[in-house]
Amino acid sequence: MKFLSSRRLVTGALALICAGSLSVLPAYAATGTRQFIETFGTKLVAIVNSPISLPEKKTRVLPLIQQDVDIDAIGRYCLGRYWKLATPEQQKQYLELFHEVLVNAITDKLGDYRGVSFTIGSISKSGDDDAVEATLVRPQQPPASMQWIVGYASGGPKVVDVIGEGASLRLTQRQDYSSYIARNGGSVDALLSALKRQIAHHSDAAAN
Amino acid sequence: MNSGRNGARLRPRGQTHTGQTREGSSAQRRFSSRSSVLAATLVALTGCSSIKAPVPKDPDALAEYQQANDAYEPLNRKVYNLTMTFDKWALRPLAKAYVWSVPRPVRNSLGNMITTMNEPSVFFNDVGAGKPRRAGDSFVRWCINMSVGIGGLIDVAKMAGYPHHDNDAGLTLANWGIPSGPYLFLPMGPSSFRDGIGYGIDQGLSPWNYVPRGYGLISFNWAYNMMGVVHGRSTHLDELDALQRDALDPYATIRSAYQQQRKAQAEAIKNDNRATVPDWY
Fold first, then answer.
1. What is the ipTM metric for this complex?
2. What is the pTM for the complete model shown?
3. Residue whose C-alpha is closest to residue B201's, from B217, B234, B178, B235
4. Is B53 near chain A, with CB under 8 Å?
5. Helix (H, G, I), strand (E, B), or coil: what is residue B216?
6. Size of interface A-B (CB pairs under 8 A)
7. Type and span of the H or E element at A149
């Protein structure tokens, strides 16, 4: 009898813990996500608004992006079905190039803004990820609302996508890449050399 | 309709996160009934099979093909290339000259006027979509801006708390549950079967197309439409330049962004269930 009751106690406790963690987990994840975006956004805005030169802004924003944006995951997503078809060597080279392209795309935007601020709205689930509503306020321009998609696949919270005016950045990029590959005979190498050209172009433009 | 000249509704990927609510987008690219005739011809043309893309056999490729929803890709690409050539040599330089020569406050006022003059079409579509609050907003906007706002040149309604919202018949049809049908690139910009039909409906909903002849209003209507196109293009100069520079396949990027944005717009209208009574009531 004693045995039975203790077993019942244990199962009961286990069930309670399970139920408890189930109900607590999403709430915990949501607050974690909010905190993550708040910290990330505050750091980003601080760099954007600081009165330092543009090259210095770029060097300061680099570690922030590498730490808080899941560039590898975005890269894999953007290659779509060709990720499976690419050789390990191509995958490695692609990710290296993609890192550079994405960082360039982000840092190019830095010079455009000054005196910005942002507010964070509601958080909802978007598949496995969390979607955070955010509004960017810029001087003399209408406020821009967007969604930050935060994923936990890499362990900690990381930005995996940004949705502006209903368009997902990574999905649009994926369809750009896959269409380019398809039109070049399904060759991943064609994409790699296009990315190389793009990077070379960018550094030429930066040098001039 | 949706389509602005060269995808005025589009935000290039690099800029999506800075996206802002574009005001008066549908108004800025009305191009009178001539282009709807062109659109209808194109839709008729698409009946031929030679302009259809082959359906892939590979399951992954098939999934991609279905997601792109672009059965008439070969034809669409031709129209896209033609449009972009026209844009490169005519419309873009014109829009640049317009920005260079007309000061920003004047351009803003003209933009307000174009937006206000399209308000009747937005109103009818709001009614069609069964959204009384939105319909009320566009009705009030029209009344305030056409009178106090001096024919729409000043957006008084916005200051009074009635900001512009966009709507067109393509979105109304979407709210009625009509699927978009295959993607189309029309001379006015990215579209679909549904949105192309919606464009035609919008032409019918615009009172400016019922102006009687012989009052000088016809030429006003033409000037208004032309200016709408140039003005609409001028508000997207940097974005489209960036898109053409950064995208590996600008056609596919525009297609993807357009389809996603239309879906989000239709969704936003569907979820707008604000009460019709004011807050203090």
1. 0.80
2. 0.81
3. B178
4. no
5. coil
6. 104
7. strand A144-151
